[in-house]
Write a structure and sequence with these properties.
Helix content: 25-40%
Number of strands: 16
Strand content: 15-25%
Oligomer: single chain
Strand order of the largest sheet: 8-9-7-6-5-10-4-11
Largest sheet: 8 strands, antiparallel
Shape: globular
Length: 604
């Protein structure tokens, strides 16, 4: 009985405590014999002695595919031995092999390359893509992707191009229109170097300042053969960079003033908490402002700008921009500012609003069939930023329809203040927009001068610009003005042109670039760069509306008398001839300028 109770033990097993079976390792000879016996025994259902892991199966399928591939033909020229092709190369996911341009011409849609099917046609070992897509199917055309060799800088430039490209004049012209906006930066690019604009000598710099103060007229030849050796060219370049500024605080950037709080915040401003210092600054500023106006009236200054933290004023002398009287344009304005000007007796007009009102009156004269089209046109103009002019056909204080209904005593009529606010709603809507441009003419500009000097809202009472007088910018010297120069530097770089990198030279000019400086620089570059260059112009946007044509609102009656004294303004005759033309750019400004064969094309 004791023997029967013992469990049967397999070879290599030992009975442990409490009857447990322990398995001991077998000797190597015993293991080899057991393995041979298992291989010789018939297959057992559910048991696969030849099981391999997935990586091993993939390697096995690759070997079978290579055996089934036909041998590559030998090269008949060199008589090389046949060589079996290797496995197909893995496709780069970042390149477009199907749409890449070939040397022979335009890209064509090609058939997708696939390895040939294995011998025997066994679908179990065929690649899975052959089961999903039929062999010989033509791949549909796809969007062209950048290849690995594409210039990344060129791709980034293309991605940032604007969708709507402004139109260029159909035929090049020998002169571009006057641009009365202030530029903050100019970038000139040319295939010829700008070494002539680098490292001016002390004598050349001094001569340039003297030529500016004496209003010396410099006439360069059409093409300067050796610009770097031309002292006359380098002096004229220094002369074109000069402008005059007030006040002058070297640690503060005084232009632009609109939206400049972030650049001024944190800078030292000892006058912000001292009313006595503020009064001294404003008194000195009033003297400079009056001096500029007197120069303008005496036809010794062509124009100047008054830049406040809320708006900008452009004063132009008689004979410029198609007007025979002194003009002042203010933009942007607010309803409060316009009301204050009215209270001071300043007569002004809103040219853009009046233009819209005139257009509306003309549209009202057409027949009923075109009324729908006109309403759509007015809607489109509102989308472009224009504000509707006040309608003369609005409801006047007539409530006769209430009497007809017999409810005149039950409905509360709006008072006079509510009616006035309703009629002036359009004025509030156009505040701080280009449509709020105000035009002051003739003797009213002197009244505007006194108004600005005494206007308390001209200077900020809070924020980083507290107590800081407005900035005065002028092309000529005036009392209290400080001579400043635009900052210029040349840069050499490589640019990709037709898959080849070529040298490109650029000249950057930074600062408040006024109209006369822009024209003077283009004349110099035309002579120095052999009549071929391009430029990108960065505009101070609040001043772009100064290019609006105001001649229709103020026709010049005696232009010949006004033009005869133009040379006294101290600018080049060609520059004055450009500035006296009526503006044609509207509410926009020149964004890019190109000269080719001494002729201009531009985009606005």
């Amino acid at each position: 009985m004791a023997a029967a109770a013992l469990p049967q033990l397999r070879p290599g097993a030992v009975l442990g405590p409490f009857g447990a079976k322990l398995r001991l390792p077998l000797p190597p000879s015993r293991c080899a014999s057991l393995h041979a016996a298992a291989m010789a025994s018939p297959a057992v259902p559910g048991y696969s002695p030849g099981f391999k892991k997935p990586p091993a199966m993939l390697r096995l399928k690759r070997k079978r595919l290579r055996r089934c591939e036909p041998a590559a033909p030998a090269n008949p020229r060199c008589g090389a031995a046949p060589r079996a092709p290797s496995a197909p190369a893995r496709r780069n996911p970042f390149s477009s092999l199907d749409n890449a341009p070939r040397a022979g011409g335009a890209p064509q849609t090609v058939e997708r390359a696939r390895p040939p099917p294995p011998a025997g046609g066994d679908p179990l070992i065929a690649p899975f893509w052959q089961l999903l897509e039929p062999v010989g199917e033509v791949e549909p055309p796809r969007r062209a992707e950048p290849s690995e060799t594409m210039d990344i800088l060129a791709l980034t430039h293309d991605l940032h191009l604007p969708v709507a490209v402004p139109e260029i004049p159909s035929a090049p012209r020998h002169e571009f229109p006057a641009d009365w906006s202030i530029k903050t930066r100019l970038l000139f690019v040319s295939s010829h170097p700008f070494t002539w604009a680098e490292h001016l000598k002390a004598q050349e710099e001094a001569q340039g300042f003297a030529q500016h103060c004496r209003a010396t007229e410099i006439n360069l030849p059409q093409s300067v053969q050796e610009p770097k050796l031309s002292t006359e060219l380098r002096c004229a370049f220094q002369q074109s960079l000069v402008y005059w500024l007030h006040p002058s605080l070297p640690w503060l950037q005084l232009f632009p003033r609109i939206g400049a709080d972030r650049k001024i915040v944190g800078k030292a401003s000892p006058w912000s908490q001292d009313e006595t210092v503020q009064q001294v600054l404003m008194s000195d500023w009033s003297v400079s402002f009056t001096s500029l106006y007197n120069l303008l009236k005496a036809k010794l200054c062509p124009y100047f700008y008054v830049c406040t933290y809320q708006f900008t004023v452009l004063f132009r002398a008689a004979g410029l921009a198609g007007s025979d009287v002194i003009t002042a344009v203010i933009s942007p304005t607010t309803r409060g500012l316009r009301e204050a000007m009215k209270n001071e007796g300043i007569e002004f007009s809103l040219p853009l609003v009046e233009e819209h009102r005139t257009r509306k009156q003309k549209n009202s004269e057409v027949n009923l069939e075109t009324e729908v089209a006109n309403s759509l046109e007015v809607g489109n103009s509102m989308e472009d930023g224009e504000q509707p002019a006040p309608s003369d056909d609005d409801d006047d204080e007539s409530f006769s329809w209430l009497e007809e209904m017999g409810v005149q005593d039950k409905v509360k009529k709006p008072d006079a203040i509510s009616i006035k606010l309703h009629k002036e709603k359009h004025e509030v809507q156009m505040d701080h927009k280009p449509e709020s441009l105000a035009l002051v003419k003739g003797t009213n500009t002197f009244t505007l001068l006194n108004f600005l000097i005494n206007c308390k809202s001209l200077v900020a009472v809070a924020g980083p610009q507290t107590g800081l007088p407005p900035t005065l910018l002028s092309p000529v010297a005036f009392r209290g003005g400080t001579m400043q120069t635009l900052k210029a530097r040349s840069i050499n770089a490589k640019a990709r042109v037709h898959l080849v990198y070529e040298d490109r030279f650029s000249l950057e000019v930074v600062g408040p670039v006024m109209p006369h400086s822009l024209h003077a620089l283009t004349m110099l570059l035309g002579s120095a760069q052999r009549g071929a260059f391009s430029a990108v112009l960065y505009t101070h946007e609040p001043t772009a509306v100064f290019n609006t044509n105001l001649d229709s609102a103020s026709p010049a009656l005696n232009k010949e008398t006004a033009y005869k004294d133009l040379p006294m303004y101290g600018l080049h005759p060609k520059t004055l001839d450009q500035l006296r033309q009526c503006p044609t750019l509207g509410k926009s400004s020149i964004r890019s300028l190109e000269m080719k064969d001494y002729a201009y094309t531009w985009k606005s």
